[in-house]
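Morning run. Coffee first, then this:
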Amino acid sequence: MTTSGSMVIQTEAGYDLIRAHFDLILELQATPLPVQTVADRIKDNITLQRLIKHGILRQDRGKITAANAVISQWRREGMVAFLEKYVLPAIRANLHNVSYTHATLLELSMPAAEIGLVREGTIAALLNDLASIPEAIDEKASTARLTISLVGATTSLPPGEDSERFAQLVRAACEQRSMNPTPSTAVLTQFDCLADIERYHATLSRAQEFCDALDSKWKNNDQSNFHLLVTTHWQQTCGN
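And here it is:
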């Protein structure tokens, strides 16, 4: 998924570097740090140079910053690693009622042409919107990683516990992403940023507006042909 003004990472090496140093990259998107501080955090100057070489980080005047405010990752692979690293933690947090989590399951009846445009149209617009939300102005504000996950597929979901229905939807999305000609009907998308309490609430509001717009146009619980799960998870500890 590409958002406007984003860097697209398509190489295996670049993907692996982002995955290994994801939280640090998020931090550097918000605040540049001295070169030595970043090198100490990574504990390997060679890896730091690789991050710079692959265009993920940038060095300027003795400081390291993320090269782009938005980084999109495109990778052809089995979905297990992506799910375990990015999607499932957010879903588990919602199922266990962890603070600062929210989940909405949309049950929609959409024309086939509209379903095919969901990822590159409706969801891409949401990601651009989320990326435009201002970062924390107060440098002393408490921030934590904020994750918005979207999992969707053309499938039927019988009534049942949330955990069962979420698991069925994830399986269906993985299967459809791996099959031709149906990958465009499946959604496995994630947006991450560092957020303070104000950005968290703004993001939650935008995500809810996105869900409400789809729901009001395509909702049909009895004859739904497309399900979309939208979860938010702000990894802030209570009381901070």
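Residues 1-5 have pLDDT under 50 and may be disordered. Good start to the day.
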